[in-house]
Write a structure and sequence with these properties.
The complex is a heterotrimer of chains A (413), B (394) and C (310). Chain A has 413 residues and is an alpha/beta fold. Chain A has 17 helices and 11 strands. Chain A has a 5-stranded mixed sheet. In chain A, strands 8-9-7-10 form a 4-stranded mixed sheet. In chain A, helix 16 packs antiparallel against helix 17. Chain B has 2 domains: 145 residues, no CATH class; 216 residues, MetI-like (MetI-like fold, Orthogonal Bundle), CATH 1.10.3720.10. Chain B has 18 helices and no strands. The N terminus and C terminus of chain B are likely disordered. Classes of the chains: A alpha/beta (413), B mainly alpha (394), C mainly alpha (310). At the B-C interface, helix 3, helix 7, helix 8, helix 9 and helix 11 of B face helix 1, helix 4, helix 5, helix 6 and helix 8 of C.
Chain lengths: 413, 394, 310
């Protein structure tokens, strides 16, 4: 009767588990302070510094305590949406830049001008700050920012008899690219992704806007945007210096880069540490200039304060404290990140050459398109972009139809 | 007695044998070489990580060992392949001439099955290998031998990070009691509890319901069943918001009940069990009823044992569903209370914003597969053969 | 007789009630609620209280939504490929492993094992296998052929003609083990005596398979067929992980994804907050599926009536 024994043991183990683990009440330490919940998506190292900053702030604000609650970045949007539906949201939260618009238009977050944000907003870097600007009002305080720049493989440049540096303009880029490409050995000068955010640098170096300033129209069918997309398509079809990484099912440009097959890719600072582990010799340069000079996109996160919180003022006080020059300087020097506070640039000296390039690149960043559903915008533009790259449509046709769809489905909803 | 084709050497048959033998040799060499290397790699990874400072230090040490071990792996693979070849050839020669056609058929069948298994299990193997690769090297391909996917610089970093026992996380563990509860163990036990309870209840209710639909009378039975099937056509995400609303109204937000209660009514389970019970001959039930068994006894003594393999399959599948039900568990989790965080949600907490680190994701997947593999091995005996096989096969 | 049937009904209700209770509490309300939502526009705030009633607008919009009808067609192709292939692969495996075979239980476990892997992980891994230039398949084909072969330049997922079959192949391989277990278990319930009787009548292996095994396995085949339809309608994770709906094709000036199945399109609508439209789409899908089922049953009934008439 061995089986019976096993089953009995399993049942006992299960019951023991129920008794030990079912109860999920937890003791909360309360010392009479009012709790402000801050949902964030930081990692371990970032959370450690956050807690230090909280301690400093609490020392000045005796009647409040901030409770940092980590939620997964993958899924912070559905989590917040559903929590807000039943009114269980936190007092403040850190969200992806593309989410601020939805929160603001759905009337969930506080207009920062209530607390005279205009007096201090000059201290923030313009491009990340503008991700929180929705319909003329500021709803988000930037807390972290990223952008992409051009990574290049020094060895591949030297092997092709070239100076290891990113070409200054797109014309030079094509010229150099032809020397770097050797498709018989699977080597390509460049590899690009097929999503709008990753390809914004192309549009931005041509000075093309996706959405007009008043948010009513799409300017994707402008001559500038068409020229930008034509340049992208020419890299693939005419000059054949792009590896085809934009195709569905292809591996991301970074894999080809770390394997020494792609000489240049667009990439953000978050991969610097990872690339260092691969022991390859790489450099980072500014994105080649188009008619509007060099430029890039903006990524990162903003912090927002929810309307239902009775302590919005204190939340605002904490968030501005958290992003002041001193705290940003500490944050960025310890974590190797780009400061969003201009004052922090004076306080810290970065040793990392690559990070300096990113700071320089960041100064040329242009504001991202602001729409209620950024995901939907990508869904409208990405397929059209792919149709052009695969030679099934001309840039003009594709962008005209994308602009019409954006206006119909997103802007005039 | 000499058959029509047998007896003399048949060149066609010898040719087929040689082709099959060549296939055998190449499969054996590639597969066993990788498996031996994998075994050595795991041991090296563990050996090299002991006492090593956490950081870049561990990788080169293990790389050295691995480099020295390469001839060993290859040697073992070659020895195994040669042994297998000699055995097969001797077997073939030893086979009576008239049975050689059957021998070749069998050999082909086995090779096909092995190739099938290799293809089917390749994702597993790849996942295991990737979870041992150091950060940044997950995507690097061995240039000399593209079939070689076992890492040459194995590290346990990924596992340590997932388990939060790497130096950085240990340093992070503060005196805060809430913070200390935020570990893999808590998440693991929570998920185990949620998934087992859910799987048990689902199989119980679904098998009772399926019994009615398959073997009992009930007014409008067909119509009710069709209605249930129709609800399966509506994608589950449509129900997410209203179900969340109900859970909050019931005051169950952040409790273990909330993690699985709305998904207990599994139409899929009822459907699967009903279809299987339809293949059980009615004569068996009637025999039990004539013997004077009560309704519950018929269900327990006849139906459950006969349907046991399928009930077990349903248990496994339900367990699996709740074990990886990320989106629902995410929205009902109360993140202020680590005791309500389950494994898929907890694992997502490790993942940062821009770090799509394959090694980390794969090692996390390994951990979530472990209990299922254990469950599977445990249940394996009953998996396909029912408990009372003899009852049907007279 | 009446007493017996009412007692039988009581027993049936007793056995069914735990399930129906849970179903009633947790599914009836959401079903009606999502149906109710399908008559409203996109919510303007999170509380879902200020919804604008739009009547049948969402349903009307579906009729002019080219993307939806295209995705429906892709879904149909996807279903027509996965369902028969899935059933055939599982049945073949089950019949193969129902024999006396050395290492039978090992093969059974091995073929079932992929079912326990998360769909997302399976998708990622197959993408890496198919990937041009770096994938296992590309490595293999360059090894055999030249650098300049289809698998190495475009990749299976990069061409609109091969992307959907490639997804189907991965999914059939993943799911075959599950069907195999069902078939194997059902094969156990076929009495050996039936085959012996057929042997006496001199039936061939193929006749025995077609006239005995298949009819007795019909409930399982029906199950796999219906869950296959549901699986095709709800297919989302595999597309999300492997192709994101692409590669794009241009049809009559409209750019559409060659693997954009209805479930994926629905998810995209849901994700961008168009709850009303997403609900309308799912009810439209339900109506279409039920319509096809009804039509097919009518045809089957007419056909059998004709046969009786002969």
């Amino acid at each position: 009767m061995d089986e019976k024994k096993i089953i009995i043991v399993a049942i006992i183990a299960y019951l023991a588990l129920v008794f030990v683990c079912w109860d999920d009440s937890i003791d909360k330490t309360r010392d009479g302070r009012t709790i402000l919940a801050f949902w964030h998506t930081y990692n371990d190292l970032e959370e450690k510094i956050l807690k230090d900053v909280i301690k400093e702030w609490e020392a000045q604000n005796a009647s409040f305590t901030i409770r940092p609650v980590r939620i997964p970045f993958d899924g912070h949007k559905p989590k917040l949406r559903t929590a807000l539906t039943v009114g269980q949201g936190p007092d403040m939260a850190r969200v992806d830049w593309s989410f601020v618009c939805e929160l603001a238009r759905k009337n969930a977050v506080v207009d920062l001008e209530t607390f005279n944000f205009s007096q201090i907003r000059g201290q923030y870097l313009k491009a990340p700050l503008e991700t929180g600007l929705i319909d003329g009002k500021y709803y988000g305080i930037p807390d972290q920012t990223t952008c992409v720049a051009m990574f290049y493989n020094k060895k591949m440049f030297v092997d092709a008899g070239l100076d290891p540096m990113v070409p200054p303009t797109w014309e030079k880029f094509i010229e150099v690219g032809k020397k770097l490409t050797d498709s018989s050995r699977g080597q390509y000068a460049f590899a690009m992704s097929n999503t709008l955010w990753w390809n914004l640098p192309f549009f931005n170096t041509f000075g093309a806007k996706i959405i007009s300033a008043d948010g009513k129209k799409s300017e994707l069918n402008s001559d500038k945007a068409i020229a930008a997309l034509e340049l992208m398509a020419s890299l693939v079809n005419e000059h054949k210096i792009e590896a085809g990484a934009w195709r569905p099912g292809a591996i991301s440009p970074e894999q080809g880069f770390v394997n020494g097959k792609y000489a240049m890719i667009l990439m953000g600072p978050w991969n610097l540490a990872k690339f260092n582990n691969t022991k390859m010799d790489y450099g980072v340069g500014l994105i080649p200039a188009g008619p509007a000079g060099t430029s890039t996109n903006v990524g990162g996160t903003d912090t927002v304060i929810f309307k239902h919180s009775p302590y919005a003022k204190e939340c605002y006080d904490f968030l501005t404290f958290f992003t002041n020059a001193k705290n940003q300087a500490r944050w960025c020097s310890e974590l190797n990140q780009l400061p969003i506070n201009l004052g922090a640039y004076d306080l810290v000296e970065f040793e990392n050459e690559h990070l300096k390039t990113f700071m320089e690149q960041m100064k040329h960043a242009r504001v991202n398109p602001v729409v209620t559903s950024y995901g939907l915008l990508e869904d409208m533009v990405n397929p059209e972009m792919e149709a052009v790259l695969s030679g099934q449509k001309t840039a003009k046709e594709a962008l005209t139809s994308a602009a019409a769809k954006i206006e119909e489905r997103i802007l005039n909803q | 007695m000499i058959s029509q084709h047998g007896g003399k050497m048949s060149p066609v048959r010898v040719f087929i044998f040689i082709v099959l033998l060549a296939a055998l040799i190449s499969i054996s060499y590639v597969v066993s070489g990788q498996l031996f290397k994998f075994g050595g790699m795991v041991i090296t990874a563990f050996a090299a990580s002991d006492g090593m400072p956490v950081g870049d230090g561990a990788a080169p040490a293990s790389a050295d060992v691995m480099l020295k071990l390469v001839p060993v792996f290859n040697g073992l693979a070659i020895i195994l392949t040669i042994a297998l070849t000699i055995l097969t050839v001797r077997w073939y020669i030893g086979t009576k001439a008239e049975e050689r056609a059957t021998f070749l058929k069998k050999m082909f069948l086995y090779e096909a099955l092995v190739i099938g298994v290799v293809v089917v299990l390749f994702p597993f193997f790849w996942m295991l290998c990737t979870s041992f690769k150091p950060s940044g090297q997950e995507l690097i391909i061995n240039k000399s031998n593209p079939f070689d996917i076992v890492p040459s610089e194995p590290t346990l970093q990924n596992f340590k990070k997932v388990l939060k026992i790497d130096a950085a996380s240990v340093a992070m563990a503060s005196e805060d009691p809430i913070e200390q509860k935020k570990n893999f163990g808590t998440y693991f036990l929570n998920s185990l509890l949620v998934a087992t309870t859910a799987a048990f209840l689902v199989t119980l209710f679904a098998s009772m319901g399926a019994y009615v639909f398959s073997k009992k009378e009930l007014p409008y039975k067909q119509q009710i069943f069709m209605l249930l099937l129709a609800t399966m056509m509506i994608p589950g995400m449509m129900f997410m918001v209203p179900q969340f609303f109900m859970i909050c109204q019931m005051g169950m937000f952040g409790t273990k009940w909330a993690m699985f209660l709305p998904h207990l009514a599994s139409v899929f389970g009822i459907f699967m069990l009903k279809q299987f019970m339809d293949t059980i001959p009615n004569s068996l039930l009637e025999a039990a009823q004539i013997d004077g068994a009560s309704e519950w006894q018929v269900f327990r003594v006849v139906i459950v044992p006969l349907a046991f393999p399928i009930i077990l399959t349903l248990f496994l599948l339900t367990f699996l569903f709740h074990w990886s039900n990320f989106l629902w568990q995410l929205i009902v989790t109360n993140f202020e209370n680590p005791l309500s965080i389950t494994l898929p949600v907890g694992l997502a907490l490790f993942r940062g914003q821009y770090t799509s680190e394959l090694g980390l994701i794969m090692s996390a997947s390994c951990f979530s597969i472990v209990p299922i593999a254990v469950l599977f091995l445990f249940a394996q005996r009953y998996f396909i053969e029912g408990m009372t096989q003899g009852a049907v096969k007279e | 007789m009446a007493i017996k049937s009412s007692k039988e009904t009581a027993v049936s209700v007793g056995f069914l009630s735990p399930f129906m209770l849970l179903f009633g509490i947790f599914l009836i309300f959401p079903i009606f609620y999502s149906f109710y939502l399908s008559f409203f526009g996109s919510p303007t705030d999170y509380s879902l209280s200020n919804l604008e009633f739009v009547g049948l607008d969402n349903y009307v919009r579906i009729f002019t939504d080219f993307q939806f009808w295209w995705s429906l067609m892709v879904t149909a192709v996807y279903g027509l490929l996965t369902i028969p292939l899935g059933i055939a692969a599982s049945l073949a495996l089950a019949l193969l492993l129902d024999n006396k075979l050395f290492g039978k239980s090992f093969f059974r476990s091995a073929f079932f094992l992929p079912n326990v892997l998360d769909m997302l992980v399976v998708g990622v891994i197959w993408t890496l296998i198919y990937a041009p230039k770096f994938g296992a398949l590309a490595q293999l084909t360059t090894f055999i052929m030249s650098e300049d072969n289809f698998f190495n330049t475009t990749g299976l997922l990069g061409s609109p003609y091969t992307a959907l079959p490639a997804v189907v192949f991965a999914m059939v391989l993943k799911g075959a083990g599950f069907g195999m277990v069902l078939f194997l278990a059902a094969l156990q319930n076929i009495p050996q005596a039936v085959y012996e009787a057929a042997d006496i009548d001199g039936a061939s292996e193929w006749q025995k398979f077609w006239n005995i095994t298949v009819p007795l396995l019909k409930p399982i085949i029906v199950f796999m067929g219906i869950t296959g339809v549901i699986g095709a309608l709800n297919a989302f994770t595999e597309i999300y992980a492997m192709t994101s709906g692409g590669p794009q094709v241009v049809i009559g000036g409209e750019t559409v994804g060659s693997t954009s199945v209805a479930g994926y399109y629905l998810y995209k609508q849901f994700e961008s907050g168009n709850y009303g439209y997403a609900a309308a789409i799912s009810y439209m899908l339900l109506i279409i599926t039920l319509g096809i089922t009804w039509l097919q049953q009518r045809l089957a009934a007419r056909k059998s009536a004709q046969e009786v008439g002969k």
